[in-house]
Amino acid sequence: MYSSLSPDGSLKLYVFIAMVTVVMIVLSQFPTFHSLRHINLASLFLSLGYSFIVVGACIHAGLSKNAPSRDYSLESSESARVFNAFTSISIIAAIFGNGILPEIQATLAPPATGKMVKGLMMCYTVMLVTFYSTAVSGYWVFGNKSNSNILKSLMPDDEPSLAPTWVLGLGVVFVLLQLFAIGLVYSQVAYEIMEKKSADVQQGMFTKRNLLPRIILRTLYMIFCGFMAAMLPFFGDINGVVGAIGFIPLDFVLPMLLYNMTYKPPKSSIIYWLNLSIMVVFTGAGLMGAFSSIRKLVLDAGKFKLFSSDVVD
Question: What pTM, to 2 d.p., does this model score?
Fold first, then answer.
């Protein structure tokens, strides 16, 4: 938005990331996952609002007289298609891995209640509605030239915007506010792990004994995250790497392994071999996804400089 409103402005991307980091440091002082419940509710409405805006903007762009040309063909190289397929699997795993976060949180900060199942059903329903609606509408309009951030496709650098400015501006604001909420939720699991060592559960969460370590640890954590985000402005590539290395094992391998270890189904049973098959298949998918995602990261590395203002998608 800044580069569009002030093309000759002196501020760089890392300056805005620093601003966001400062806000995140303040917001990160919410002591528990439960204290984020109102922010999570706002996040739900922001997700739905952003999705409706993007889908509407894509339909508007696709039906307008200035609609972009569309090419739905796959890449000509068979190896590139295979690598991109595994990268895409990793990204999808990262997206649908969102549901694993409240489950981890429930085990770290008991008691876990029956409401967790309802929460997960709600989580996956929202993901299906939001991610698929924007992905399908974006691909319909832009084909294989679709950006991993559809808003960037709707606001090309060298051409007029493909939707009304106020609509796109509202979408950007929704994204920014939503990212604050996402950052808080994702970070809360790390906070729980860190504070198991630093906190004294015998004392209140707002006593000096617990308050000072919490402020220091969370501030340092957010400064580190902000520094890495400013230094390495990747988007889609990072999603692929995180999905392959983090979410595929977390979503598809570890649950099956823990089930077999906990319930010890007979080795002659269908459940045992089904779980084993899932572990083998997704371990392979995770390894291939990690390789293809890191490969794409390396290929894209030549497109940017450290602390660049151009995000590599």
Answer: 0.70
